[in-house]
Design a protein that fits this description.
With 196 residues, the chain is mainly alpha-helical. The chain is 53% helix and 3% strand. The protein is built from seven helices and two strands; from the N terminus they run αααααββαα. A two-stranded antiparallel sheet has the order 1-2. The longest helix is centred in the C-terminal third of the chain and has 27 residues. The radius of gyration is 19 Å and the shape is globular. It starts with 6 loop residues before the first helix and ends with a helix. The relative contact order is 0.16.
């Protein structure tokens, strides 16, 4: 267990927990189910994972003068000129297991940056606006964890809509057990209808 009294260890702990939660949301899904759009803007569970791994590789790589060992495994910056959504879906040649493996490798790469640098280590985010690019490892760890947590929330909802699988973490669902969800939804609907 990480020493959560140490700021860097605490940030790293929550970053890793969010990574694990994102991967967990793909458990048991077929290739089709993982790729299937779940929203009007095409959000899909595997696309969320692919986006997050590219985010991490960028923020913990070029921001601190590092390059991912196999850059061709990531979505290149020029791909976004043709398709601004290039990192939000798995291509035909990519697989669910392959992207999960890549995400774990990106995690190891990001962890190396975190372990090698102090929290106040300076970095520069190349794709941020001039004058706003200077950062520290501390800020990037917070930024990336917040970004991933937001997308883990998207994944929670998409998975629940798909097959009713709910929960915050594999080990701690944070959801009441044996709860009458249909009755709860009916109660909330009646409450909302009073304002209609």
């Amino acid at each position: 267990m990480a020493d959560l009294g140490d700021p860097k260890a605490a940030l790293h702990h929550y970053l890793q927990a969010t990574r694990d939660d994102l991967i967990w949301k793909l458990d048991g899904l077929s290739e089709r189910e993982a790729r299937l759009p779940r929203t009007a803007t095409g959000n899909n569970l595997l696309g969320v994972l692919k986006h997050c791994l590219n985010v991490e590789a960028g923020y913990f790589g070029p921001t601190f003068g590092r390059e991912f060992p196999i850059p061709e495994d990531l979505v290149p910056m020029q791909a976004f000129e043709e398709d601004p959504q290039a990192d939000w879906y798995a291509s035909e040649s990519e697989t669910k297991d392959g992207l999960i493996d890549l995400y774990r490798r990106v995690g190891v790469f990001a962890d190396q940056t975190i372990e090698q640098l102090p929290l106040d280590a300076p970095g520069q985010v190349p794709w941020w606006r001039p004058g706003k690019q200077d950062v520290t490892l501390h800020r990037i760890m917070i930024h990336v964890t917040c970004d991933l947590a937001r997308h883990a929330g998207h994944a929670d909802i998409m998975r629940e809509q798909h097959d009713g699988a709910i929960g915050w973490q594999r080990e701690n669902s944070n959801i009441p057990h044996d709860y009458d969800w249909p009755e709860y939804v009916t109660k909330l609907t009646k409450l909302a209808d009073r304002f209609g």
